[in-house]
Amino acid sequence: MHVSCAKKIERSYILNSEIMFYTLAIGHLSLRMFLGSILISSALTKILHPTNFYVSIRDYRIIPAKKMGQAIASILVVMIPGGEIVIGSALVVGWPLIFSKVGALLLFLIFSSVISLTIIRKRTDILCSCGGILGNHRISWLLVARNVLLLALLLLNIFVPGDTITLELLLSTQRYDPTLVVASIGAAFIISTGAIALIKVTKAIYEFLA
To answer: What is its main location (predicted)?
Structure first.
């Protein structure tokens, strides 16, 4: 009787542990897919419209206006979207995990700092050149607040344990139930796609009311 009861408790504990394990994993993967998609889509917009991106870089006036500034801007036109694609892709697949998260953190910090500095200098008549899912809007503190929210989500992903469905771990010696892994990836994809759709709808409503 006592043995049977103990086994039931043990099975219940294992089941609850698995539920918690995959719930956290889905949450982390959803966040990584969402943030990675933002970076990748932003990069694709810059790649498809390099001239517009070059003009935007010059409009921020954070680099010299002379020939050296033109050369730096030309390099940034290639480096920034290249970095976004590499870091965004690494974030989605989770390999290398630390590189992708730290890289994304640095990108969002740099973008937020540049926008903030430009606003402080009272230059709010230029477009952010974010592109992709986030769109392209005139710079404002609202954009900074949005980036701070993205940073908060990224920090949540970094410091909350449980980010286990990553290519880095799946290729290691750890064993996962393939069915549950596939189901978790599917669930994370649906959640992240829903978040992206929500951004699109919110943006459309904002533009309609503006």
So the answer is: membrane
- CA contacts within 13 A on the Cβ side of 132: 20
Residue 76 falls within a domain, yes or no? yes
Instruction: Give yes or no for a contact between 107 and 85, defined as CB atoms under 8 angstroms apart.
Output: no
Would residue 10 count as lying in a domain? no
Cis omega (within 30 of 0) on the bond before 96? Answer: yes
Give yes or no for a contact between 14 and 172, defined as CB atoms under 8 angstroms apart: no
Report the amino acid identity of residue 194.
Answer: G
The answer to the question of residue 178 being in a domain is yes
Q: What is the pLDDT of residues 163-205, one digit of tens each?
A: 888 887 777 756 677 888 888 889 999 999 999 998 888 878 8
| pTM (predicted TM-score) | 0.87
Q: Are 84 and 42 within 8 A, CB to CB?
A: yes
CA 90 and chain centroid, separation: 10
At 164, phi and psi to the nearest 5? Answer: -110, -20
Which sign does the torsion angle of CA 150, 108, 201, 195 carry?
negative
Number of structural domains the chain divides into = 1
